[in-house]
Amino acid sequence: MSDATSTGPMLAADGTPLKRSLNRALRAQKLRALMLIAPLLVFILVTFIAPITDMLFRSVENQIVSDTLPRTTRALEGWDHNSGELPSEDVFAALTYDLVAAAERKDHTRLGTRLNYETTGMSSIFRKTGRRIDDFGETYMDQFAEATPDLAAPETWVTVMADPGWRADYAAWEAARAAARETGRDFDRPPPLFRLKNGVADILPEAADVYAEFARIAQVENGDNPAEEEPWAPVYLALYRDLMHVGPGAIERLDDASRATLAPAHDAVAGFQSERLADLYLDADKGWGEPAIWSTIQAFSSNYTPGYFLASVDLRQTADGVAMQDEDRRIYIMLFERTLFMSLAIMGACILLGYPIAFLLANLPLRTSNVLLILVLLPFWTSLLVRTSSWKVLLQQQGVINDVLVWIGLVDNANRLVMINNQFGTIVAMTHILLPFMILPLYSVMKTIPPTYVRAAKSLGASNWTAFWRVYFPQSVPGIGAGCILVFILAIGYYITPELVGGTTGTFISNRIAYHISSSLNWGLAAALGSILLAVVLLLYWIYDRIVGIDNVSLG
Amino acid sequence: MTMKQLLSATALAALPAGALFAQDLPPCENCADSITAVSWGGAYQTSQIKAYAEPYTALTGTTFTWDESSNEAVAKLRAQSEAGNITWDLVDVEGPDSQRLCDEGLAMEVDHDEILAAGDDGSAPTDDFSDSVINDCFIPQIVFSTTFGYRTDVSAWNGNEPDNLCALFDLETFPGKRSLEKRPKKNIEWALLCDGVAKDELYDVLSTPEGLERALAKLDTIKSETIWWSAGAETPQRLADGEVVMGSTYNGRLFSLIVEQNQPVKMLWDWQVFDFDGWVIPADLPEDRLNRVLHFLHFATDTQRLADQAKYISYGPARASSQPLVSTHADLGIEMAPHMPTNPENQKNYLVNNIEWWADNQDDVEARFQAWLAQ
């Protein structure tokens, strides 16, 4: 190297510094290696990492509340859930605007279902109210129609609310569509989305807001022209509330056409018969009278929530912090414990049954052991469902085993053993199904243990047992470790076998996850339960690594 | 049509079947040439293929792809909609699921009078289908019922045979295991009926906080003797094995068990619960696929096609005008009318789920029931 240091960097044959040319060669190699694993990498990212990330996200995601009830969640910020009083009329008004839009978009039932996970009764409250929400504000609609007949015409609303620029754009779009129809061309340009007139939102904040929502929904959901559609009753409610608040000076600032309509309306509203919104809600469902309903909305108005994770461990989030779940809804801790206990039991049974078989396989003459190995593998190649169903045939009360026991007189015909649709059935069937996962790693490890060691121990005076226990067994431990990890991790997430033979006492947490995915559609809770299961497996793996050492695990 | 009308129509018995093919099938413009349909699999799907799909393919050349996912249709449709890629064209669901899909905007709302064919007797579709049109998205096909089967050879019963539903809760006279669905619907209604609640007051009682607990308390009395099912085939299997002595399932399943397989099992029609099954169209289908589906539906739900389906399975057509056309079983040649849930003999006591009550309370009741099961 002294030569290199004295004459500068070492050069390659083509004159570039050796370091750089080496790097380049290596980079090309690395790139090639990366290209080679790229299909696998992409495959794993798409089919494994991405779904898991998505699942983790779903378990905390809660945008549905603030997305569906944006005004309500804002208005509720000032409400004190401990006061024992119902929220103010402003909150009820905000809820009316949110709900009428949600009902139009068909979002309110989903929101009700979501909130029902936290407080029972919410789903039915939202459904019942959603059916009536169209009528809220109808009193004002009628009174406006009487006082200022203009306001009953959809066109008037567009005059008051719409940006003239938007009206021009819309007219141009309609003309283009008509022209396209005439010539028979395809026309799929979307119409320009409704825009509010400058300044109208300052004077009529609620009415402008709700009307804009109405106009956009009319366009997007129903493909209608807002100028031809009668606004929702709650739009009139909003106008009434706005006009009650603003002074005549504000109306003066409007353009001529709007003023012509709204000035008489403004004069008239003072004489309107008013109606308490809270009463309308209580009439739709008396549940709205309970502060618990409101505090649930308040507690779940943030975009992310620990609610699903809390529910997964039988807790629930309330406005005052975390509390225990109602006694008659606590099941998840019990299910997690049962899943762990039964997976351990299955793992233990697999060791007990698998070890002697693997020992035989490894030590019998090749011809016999090959036949035995085929017997081990044969069920492995049989469909999982077939094996599970055959356990039904064997274990059920009118099944083969009970029949035999009755026939030899061990069991009375009237008291046949219950061996299926309970924990016992699940453990038996799953032990059978997972047994090859224990035997194969054990066998491959035992195959590598030289028989000379045991012979040497015996020749030094060890008894059969000592030779096995002190010399043979410690060398087979890596196989036990590998088998245990395989069996345990497979067992803890098992689903179909417990579903078929587990009844109600032999089911696992995974059966609940499946139930929430496909039946109750509580995907957030399913995701949280799945995340916890994943965390438990990783934790146990880590503990195992600390105690046994993952390097001591061998698959052969 | 009320149940009364429906049954009187059935009583008119079978008239000779009409023309096999609708000769006047209008051409389909701007239509896809295949349909991905979702159904329940098994004998039911076969009856749909024989009665609707094969004749339609013969007339139009449309190919069908069948997906047996109706069980999880709501979850899967929601997932497809979130992913923005609807792969299904037509989905067969039970009434309550259609309600849910319709509420969430996952199914398309239709105008029944516009898209469906008038009855053979000239009646408007909404009149002809009547009560079975339970919401704006649902295009009814059949009336089915959930009812009980029991074994006729149980020695411990000392020759007694159940003659009413409440034998279910009578463990003294009728000892043995029962098989019930792993869901609250129907079970809690039956429990209350046998706990002395009148049919008219059922949902008033259930609406009170104590009502559900009362039903669960009644079910508690047989919980230790109950094996729960989640697939309709489980009860017939358990009855055939002698694993249970009585159990609930769909009437068509019991029909195959008793009539086709000749098992020592009898049917208990008492307090059978009626349900409707039908099609929904996923929302936001592309135009050509939607056109094809509408064209198919117009054909597949006409009077003759619905009556044809009853040749293959013992479920009643949802159209009143189809009732008189119900004929004999395609293979066995027996009259199908006496095996229909709508037969007057079979429906002295019957129940129809209150769809609105269930839509409102399903989430709560389901959660409570599942927790009750696990405890």
TrEMBL record, chain A:
Coiled-coil residue windows: none
Main location: membrane
A cellular component term, taken from the record's GO annotations: plasma membrane
Membrane spanning stretches: 31-50, 339-362, 368-386, 424-443, 477-496, 521-544
Domain of life: Bacteria
Signal peptide: none
PANTHER family according to UniProt: ABC TRANSPORTER PERMEASE PROTEIN, INNER MEMBRANE ABC TRANSPORTER PERMEASE PROTEIN YDCU-RELATED-RELATED
Name of this chain's protein: Putative spermidine/putrescine transport system permease protein
Native source species: Rhodovulum euryhalinum
Automatic annotation (TrEMBL), chain B:
One Pfam family in the UniProt entry: SBP_bac_8
InterPro entries for this protein: SBP
Record's signal peptide: 1-22
Record flagged with keyword Nucleotide-binding: no
Record-linked Gene3D superfamilies: Periplasmic binding protein-like II (3.40.190.10)
Keyword entries, A-Z: Signal
Name the record gives this protein: Putative spermidine/putrescine transport system substrate-binding protein
Lineage of origin: Bacteria, Pseudomonadati, Pseudomonadota, Alphaproteobacteria, Rhodobacterales
